[in-house]
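cache lookup: miss for this entity combination. No prior model stored, computing from scratch. Input as submitted by user K.M.:
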Amino acid sequence: MTDYLTELVQIIASNVKTLQSAYVINGRAYPPLDEPLDPAQAAKIASNNAVQETTRLIVAAATQLVASVRSPFDVLGEQATGMYNTVTLSFVNDHNIADLLKEAGPEGLDAKEIGKRIGVDGVYVAQCLRYLATRHIFREVKPNVFANNRLSSALVKSKPFNEIESDIMTKYDDAPVSAFVGHVTDEGFIGSQSFIEFMKHPKGYSSPLSMTLQEHTSMFEWYARPEQKWRARRFATAMKAPAKLRGQGAYASALDWNSLPSGSTIVDVGASTGVVTMEIARSAPQHKYVLHDLEGGIAAAQRHWAKEWPEAVENGTVTLEVHSFFDPMPVQADVYFMRAIIHDWPEDECRQILRHLNAAAKPTSKLVLFEMMALHACSDELVGGNDVPYPLLANLGIAGAGFVTMIDMHMISLLNGRERTAREYEELGKQAGWKLETVKPGLVPAFIFSKAVE
Ligand SMILES: C[S@@+](CC[C@H](N)C(=O)[O-])C[C@H]1O[C@@H](n2cnc3c(N)ncnc32)[C@H](O)[C@@H]1O
């Protein structure tokens, strides 16, 4: 039998070959990390399931190999100082350094010059950029001279460097990855400061974020304040990030939307900009779509639809309405769906939201929850994991469950929410009158429920 390290190396070697062949079919060799991101190529690759699976196995094996051969002190030390990942990324993202380096091109820019342009001592700039370049974000092309690479260029915003700071409200518009990094390194970081204290002594606060801010409101109520509107807008843009980098198509194929009677009513509950509705409605435009959110979410949706597909609103295919899901649902729909809503809330609030939908539903109505699924790190009889090649973790470590475990922590920090297993979604639905019929797998699985017979 081959030894543990060799098994990991073999998984990497065989899957790298598959990945390279996939790129050759796509007409080019696998791009080196030094090259800036090609968004069209990234989206194409992200929507190729075979490439995604191959990539997952490489990442799972490579991270396990690194964890196996590094000293425990190095691994724990790197993990324990994760806050420097947060603050250095926050620093470069807030100061638009990727944008500046985009304009500088592949030759890069001296840290002193970067410092002058952003008003920070160039020595600090070099230290932060070197920390990130050592972790493969940015490149140090010559001593103290830095340029973008594929990872850092994903932070580029939509306006030229000189114009970005002219308006905080629009700073992150059309730049979902930068908005996502801005949101998690800001609100997430603030919340994380009360993370441990909150779990033991919540002291009446609704989340670690509220505890640090000493505000007895939820994050969404805080976002509704005039001085927080820019954060709310950044959050709405951030919600587009996973789709931008990971490809689309999963929502339109989750249900056979075209088998519903023409003119069916479909409600996107807590829709924000409505990116999910847009994908579904493009594939089934014969139905009526209703988007519900709070005022800030609907304002973001109005901007998004006016830009991307104004006719859909003008001709009544899509209606945008301010409505709180903690109030009774006013629409009797054929399908209610939600993406990334239930994971925001603790159990009581989830039951309240789902019961309101159940009370409005017809006997034939469906409920679709698009939510990531929490996966145990060991095999689970319900979900499987035994088919994962030895010696990988059943959930493929950060390759399979990195994002969901990270968002799980983020949900505790922001809202005292959580990611749930398939069994927990089934149980939650049951408590609110919904029967889980199917789980459509995917990066964001679809949990499809029907109304339980009383
Ligand atoms: C995590 S985001 C998900 C947005 C959208 N479903 C998506 O996937 O892009 C949560 C959304 O819930 C909305 N929300 C929060 N509280 C709400 C409430 N009481 N009623 C309706 N929407 C609410 C927020 O405004 C935000 O747009």
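stored under new cache key. The longest strand covers residues 434-440.
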